[in-house]
């Protein structure tokens, strides 16, 4: 009995020491909380000093008032986020103060890049249908979101694309030959033939190589933007994604990281109406994607994605403030995907021909910009015919060069993973060549680069 009592006293003493240590650690953490909070939140969200005498919420997690009536917040608490635009559908400037006052040469460059992208799309889409390439995704109807946003960025800003931002690369100077080389996976491809078509990338043009899985680029972009912030480099990151990708978990993680770490990042959502065959009314119940921004503490705007000037203005201002204030912005560009989701999709199974024709004929970003140029006397039928002929010639010449080019050397399948090839990869490489030699009638090596 005496031994038991002694053991109990020792345990109580140890418990007392442990409890005292826990209280000390808790007190130390509590003393650090104001410092941590001051570091992590911006001025607009800074926690007010605690005052126990005031009868109002003191919770650190939100800014609010007490109410004494039970009422749930309704999802339609506002009538809808408005859509910012500069031009109407006939290309007329609605408010002169919103006109970006771009020069004739700049506007013509916008138009030529948008139509050149459209021409490239048509030729590569047909080449897939003819079995010349394995896969393709067009950009029909979304050209205004590409060119308007790309023009508003600085060349050294970092771009994370999804898979429908070819116009951004084109505006930055990516040549037609490299677009074709990537889709044909030939020896000129910067990715050395190791990616499926339309997965472009360019280190020189600060365009991160596209990945197939949806939304993986959002948290990656948040990390890259945080790194740029730490470097004080006066650079921004822009991250493109569709409204379907915004339903992925990675999107929410990216939003939250960017907001809490206060990153110079523009989240650019192309809301084109469909996530493959799923329409927006089956994707979400809230007011689009821009409505999510305030919930994460982000400045947000919704723009007419078929108005290249509205996209330009919104992106330019978001870029300026993102760098100056170190905070993320969310732009939701409302547009329409006129083409099929990809060459693996038949959109006639889930939407009407009349619906597609409306957006193609009456509310297209290219036709809207052409109306604007025509009204200014900068463009006419003669210029249109000459440019369409010239742009098709440029694309077809690049197309033919790519088709004649050899495929990358098979050894390139094993490079660029390690600085020096490890024994495992070396063994796989040797096994591949034994297989090729054994069945060489099935592997025409004369089609591959030496």
From TrEMBL:
Which GO terms label this protein's molecular function in UniProt?
branched-chain 2-oxo acid dehydrogenase activity; metal ion binding
Q: Which residues form the Dehydrogenase E1 component domain?
A: 112-410
Mind telling me which Pfam families this protein's record contains? E1_dh
Signal peptide range equals none
One GO cellular component term of this record is: mitochondrial matrix
| Protein's cellular compartments | Mitochondrion matrix
| Cofactor dependence | thiamine diphosphate
Which keywords belong to this entry? Metal-binding, Mitochondrion, Oxidoreductase, Potassium, Thiamine pyrophosphate, Transit peptide
**Catalytic activity line of the entry:** N(6)-[(R)-lipoyl]-L-lysyl-[protein] + 3-methyl-2-oxobutanoate + H(+) = N(6)-[(R)-S(8)-2-methylpropanoyldihydrolipoyl]-L-lysyl-[protein] + CO2
Q: Does the keyword Isomerase apply?
A: no
Stored InterPro entries? Alpha-ketoacid_DH_E1_comp, DH_E1, THDP-binding
Question: Which EC number(s) does UniProt give?
Answer: 1.2.4.4
GO biological process: one example: branched-chain amino acid catabolic process
Q: Which domain of life is it from?
A: Eukaryota
Which family, according to UniProt? Belongs to the BCKDHA family.
The record's subunit annotation is: Heterotetramer of 2 alpha/BCKDHA and 2 beta chains/BCKDHB that forms the branched-chain alpha-keto acid decarboxylase (E1) component of the BCKD complex. The branched-chain alpha-ketoacid dehydrogenase is a large complex composed of three major building blocks E1, E2 and E3. It is organized around E2, a 24-meric cubic core composed of DBT, to which are associated 6 to 12 copies of E1, and approximately 6 copies of the dehydrogenase E3, a DLD dimer. Interacts with PPM1K.
Its biological function? The branched-chain alpha-keto dehydrogenase complex catalyzes the overall conversion of alpha-keto acids to acyl-CoA and CO(2). It contains multiple copies of three enzymatic components: branched-chain alpha-keto acid decarboxylase (E1), lipoamide acyltransferase (E2) and lipoamide dehydrogenase (E3).
Its name, as the record gives it, is 2-oxoisovalerate dehydrogenase subunit alpha
Q: Which organism is it from?
A: Electrophorus electricus
């Amino acid at each position: 009995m005496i031994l038991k009592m002694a053991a109990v006293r020792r345990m109580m003493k140890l418990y007392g020491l442990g409890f005292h240590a826990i209280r000390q650690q808790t007190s130390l953490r509590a003393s650090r909380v104001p410092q941590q909070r001051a570091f992590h939140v911006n001025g607009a969200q800074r926690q007010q000093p605690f005052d126990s005498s005031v009868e109002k919420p003191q919770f650190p997690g939100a800014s609010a008032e007490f109410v004494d009536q039970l009422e749930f917040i309704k999802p339609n608490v506002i009538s809808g986020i408005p859509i910012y635009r500069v031009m109407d559908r006939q290309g007329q400037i609605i408010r002169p103060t919103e006109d970006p006052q771009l020069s004739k040469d700049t506007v013509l460059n916008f138009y030529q890049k948008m139509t050149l992208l459209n021409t490239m799309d048509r030729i590569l889409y047909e080449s897939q249908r003819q079995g010349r390439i394995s896969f393709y995704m067009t950009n029909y109807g979304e050209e205004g979101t590409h060119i308007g946003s790309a023009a508003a960025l600085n060349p050294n800003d970092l771009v994370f694309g999804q898979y429908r931002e070819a116009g951004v690369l084109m505006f930055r100077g990516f040549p037609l030959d490299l677009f074709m080389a990537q889709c044909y996976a030939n020896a000129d491809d910067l990715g050395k033939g190791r990616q499926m078509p339309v997965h472009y990338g360019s280190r020189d043009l600060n365009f991160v190589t596209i990945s197939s899985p949806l939304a993986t680029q959002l948290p990656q972009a948040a990390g890259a933007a945080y790194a740029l912030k730490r470097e004080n480099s006066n650079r921004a990151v822009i991250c493109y994604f569709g409204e379907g990708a915004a339903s992925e978990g990675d999107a929410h993680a990216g939003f939250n990281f960017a907001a809490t770490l206060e990153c110079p990042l523009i989240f650019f959502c192309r809301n084109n109406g469909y996530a493959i065959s799923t329409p927006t009314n089956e994707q979400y119940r809230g007011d689009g994607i821009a409505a999510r921004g305030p919930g994460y503490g982000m400045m947000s705007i919704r723009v007419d994605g078929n108005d290249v000037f509205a996209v330009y203005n919104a992106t330019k201002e978001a870029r300026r403030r993102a760098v100056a204030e170190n905070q993320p912005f969310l732009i939701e560009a409302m547009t329409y995907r006129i083409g099929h989701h990809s060459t693996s999709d038949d959109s006639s199974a889930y939407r009407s021909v009349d619906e597609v024709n409306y957006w193609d004929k009456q509310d297209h970003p290219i036709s809207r910009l052409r109306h604007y140029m025509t009204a200014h006397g900068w463009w006419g039928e003669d210029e249109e015919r000459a440019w369409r002929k010239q742009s098709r010639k440029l694309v077809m010449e690049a197309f033919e060069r790519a088709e004649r080019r050899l495929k990358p050397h098979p050894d390139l399948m094993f490079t660029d993973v390690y600085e020096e090839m490890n024994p495992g990869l070396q063994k796989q490489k040797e096994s591949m060549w034994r297989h090729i030699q054994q069945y060489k009638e099935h592997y025409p090596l004369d089609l591959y680069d030496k």
